[in-house]
Design brief:
The protein has a four-stranded antiparallel beta sheet. It has four helices and four strands. By secondary structure, the protein is α+β, with helices and mostly antiparallel strands. Helix 2 packs antiparallel against helix 4. It has a single domain, classed as Beta-Lactamase.
Length: 156
């Protein structure tokens, strides 16, 4: 965990200002539930046969999704029991705890990772390469949507 934590801190420190500024410019933080993102999340859950899928825009908070944005290709925890350093997280431990989590980053045209498409399950499961490719496709759709919104604001 310490290596991952160090990598996270170093990555966040170097790009964090640019990433947060970019994220703020998209005006997608702290908004109400948005149908287009809800529909993409529901599509992802159905396509990957998982009970939960989320589109998450990552600000400064510490979460599983903040771990996912430090890696270009995302992150997968197929079995949290194999990662005891994560067991202190209330979402992972306990009766309603998670067994599986996978996420791919949503990357802007500037190359900044501003969010994730993630899938979650209470059961342990494998994360297959074709599932990652499908999630990357959804992340690309999210990117197109936030770019469309930015263009519309600039043109208005």
């Amino acid at each position: 965990m310490r290596q991952l934590e160090k990598k996270l801190r170093k990555s966040i420190a170097s790009d964090e200002r640019s990433r947060l500024e970019n994220l703020k410019n998209y005006k997608i933080l702290y908004t109400k539930s948005e149908p287009v993102f809800d529909q993409l999340a529901a599509f992802t859950a159905k396509m990957l046969n998982t009970p939960i899928a989320l589109i998450n825009f990552v600000d400064q908070e510490s979460s599983l999704c903040s771990l996912a944005i430090i890696n270009e290709s995302g992150i997968a925890f197929e079995n949290f029991e194999q990662h005891p350093y994560l067991m202190s997280n209330a979402l992972i431990a306990g009766e309603s705890g998670l067994g599986f989590y996978a996420a791919v980053p949503i990357t802007t045209d500037e190359g900044l990772r501003v969010g994730t498409v993630c899938i979650v399950d209470k059961k342990h499961r494998k994360f297959l390469p074709q599932e990652q490719r499908k999630m990357e496709w959804v992340a690309g759709m999210v990117k197109k949507e936030i770019n469309r919104r930015m263009t519309n604001r600039i043109m208005a």
